Amino acid sequence: MSGAGGPSRYGYTLMTEQSGPREIVRYAAAAERAGFDFEVMSDHYSPWLVEQGHAAYAWSMLGAVTQVTDRVELMTYVTCPLLRYHPAVVAQKAATVGLLSQDRFILGLGAGENLNEHVVGQGWPPVNVRHEMFTEAVEIISGLFDGGYVSYAGSHYRVDSAKVWDLPETRVPIAVAVSGDQSIEKFAPLAQHLVAVEPEPDLIEKWDAAGGGRESRKIGQLPISWDTDKDRAVERAHQQFRWFGGGWKVNAELPGPSGFAGATQFVRPEDVAESIPCGPDVQAIVDAVAAYTRAGFTDVAVVQIGDETQDEFMTFAERELLPALHGA
């Protein structure tokens, strides 16, 4: 991925909520052949909506993806190290993927959503507690990446003489998801790179200020619904991605697909089409990506909505989309 101030690079999202594990691995290889620079993978226990229909285990798929790709960087977008996974185990998993990928892996971390974390029966803490837990979790993971034995006694986690025995020669970089002042203030000093899903220049400026001006990647994500038929593209985006418009403060709190279905029951197809590029127009996608570039993002990963569209989308990406993006 590019450094701060460098040219934008373009990624493909391995959307585990809309495709099965064998398909995800196949799409990863195809995306590399198509010319994408990096690939990000969601890490969910549940899809957002029943219509999406999938949620296989991200880390098994990542292991397989390291063996069918050679060039692209890989990243979790994002893993929550709070309840479903203990941070000491996240460090072990990330180091293993770093080794398998030969230093092509970035550990993307976030404070998570109720949707995926309540399943282990420990409830869903309020946001201020989640931020405390996340801070401790990143400290533990960073300590284990340093090598040696780690013991830690925090308000939320304890670690007793833990050591990751297989660490890659190049330390696995950490990227964290942020959405506002509080998360930037707490997490910028703990990570190398930023993750955000809205092209807000304010986030980038505050992140750089909080990080003391060090070089940092800013990695965004953009859903699109490419199709040769615009009406079909809009219909598919509405069916599978209407949850996206609620914003992360809402999305983090809803407990399951039925909650997202209820919260979005009055969202119309035209509402979705206003916020997500739909149809065959390459320029509409280029313009949407350009908003991230103008905001200061260095890297943008697109999400192509709909499992059934991926093979045709790869051809479009190789022949039209990626040349148009690089040309812009």
Largest sheet: 8 strands, parallel, barrel
Strand order of the largest sheet: 1-2-3-4-7-8-9-10
The CATH homologous superfamily name equals Luciferase-like domain
Question: What are the segments in which pLDDT stays under 50 over at least 5 consecutive residues?
Answer: 1-6
Task: State the total count of DSSP E strands.
Answer: 10
CATH class: Alpha Beta
CATH architecture, by name, is Alpha-Beta Barrel
Morphology call:
globular
Global structural class: alpha/beta
- Strand percentage lies at 5-15%
Number of domains: 1
Structure in words:
With 328 residues, the protein is α/β, with parallel strands linked by helices. The protein has one domain: Luciferase-like domain (TIM Barrel). The chain contains 13 helices and ten strands. It has helices at 21-34, 58-68, 87-100, 114-117, 127-145, 181-187, 201-210, 230-241, 248-251, 257-263, 269-275, 282-295, 310-327; strands spanning 9-14, 38-41, 73-76, 105-109, 150-153, 158-162, 174-177, 193-195, 218-224, 299-304. The strands form two sheets. It has an eight-stranded parallel beta barrel with strand order 1-2-3-4-7-8-9-10, surrounded by five helices. A two-stranded antiparallel sheet has the order 5-6. Helix 1 packs parallel to helix 13 (310-327), helix 2 (58-68) runs parallel beside helix 3 (87-100) and helix 3 (87-100) packs across helix 5.
